[in-house]
Design goal:
- By secondary structure, the chain is of the alpha+beta class.
- The protein folds into 3 domains: 1-114, Zinc/RING finger domain, C3HC4 (zinc finger) (Herpes Virus-1, 2-Layer Sandwich), CATH 3.30.40; 115-152, no CATH class; 200-250.
- Helices cover 33% and strands 15% of the residues.
- The chain has 8 helices and 13 strands.
- It has helices at residues 49-58, 76-83, 105-109, 132-139, 156-161, 185-195, 216-225, 227-250; strands spanning 37-40, 46-48, 72-74, 86-88, 99-101, 116-118, 126-128, 144-146, 153-155, 171-172, 183-184, 200-202, 213-215.
- A 3-stranded antiparallel sheet has the order 2-1-3. A two-stranded antiparallel ribbon has the order 4-5. It has a two-stranded antiparallel ribbon with strand order 6-7.
Length: 251
Amino acid sequence: MNDGVIKDGGYDVKLVNEAPAEVDVFCVVCTLVLRDPVQLQCCTRHLCDSCYQKCAKEASSCPVCGTVPTQAFPDGAWARIVKNLKVYCINKQRGCYWENELRLLQDHVDVCSCDMIACPRNCGFSMERRNKEFHLSSICRLRPFKCEHCSAGGTYEAIMQVHFKECAEYPLDCPNNCTTDTIKRKNLKAHILETCPLEMVKCQFSEVGCSFICQRKDMAKHLDDCMQQHLMMTMETVRHLKLRVQSLEEK
């Protein structure tokens, strides 16, 4: 969730009105609007608590005046002044017209229609809150989805990327482009092996010596044209078989 702040530092917001000159509302370290302000004892300037803690770890001197050592204390009064500043919604550039006191910003951001949110299905996509329902129903890769060919259920991603590659009812084109009609995956193998007129096939007399290969649609003409040759090949094969049988019997 976008909470209008950076992890270590102040509120990354834009003020509706100019900051009062007599009040430190910007951190002298991160330059953002103070968050959990603390006052430095040495120079009375204000920092975000997280900015002060970071500076204290890195150096013992004051980040403003250089006093050593430096100490700071929480400034509740200053925090109230800052929280009462009027600010724009952090989603102003995306079309949100909300403007109100900083203390109310988080409650607004939690429901702001322009705020960027992550998909609740954890698909990795982010969208403006107002587009959430459209995303969930029409875009999300993890949305519920059914195969239109066999009604198998799953996510859109699983159906499109995995199921469609193995669905028995999925329509495919004949690899030989013999027809403009599609063929169900479960029937494609039989179509190619048995009926496709453009599939290249061997002559059925190949076992007796015919080496002719042509498209299935032309095989009938070949059989008619070469009937005599096929008969001779068959007879020659039979003759060789008889001789072999005779040889085996003699042994």
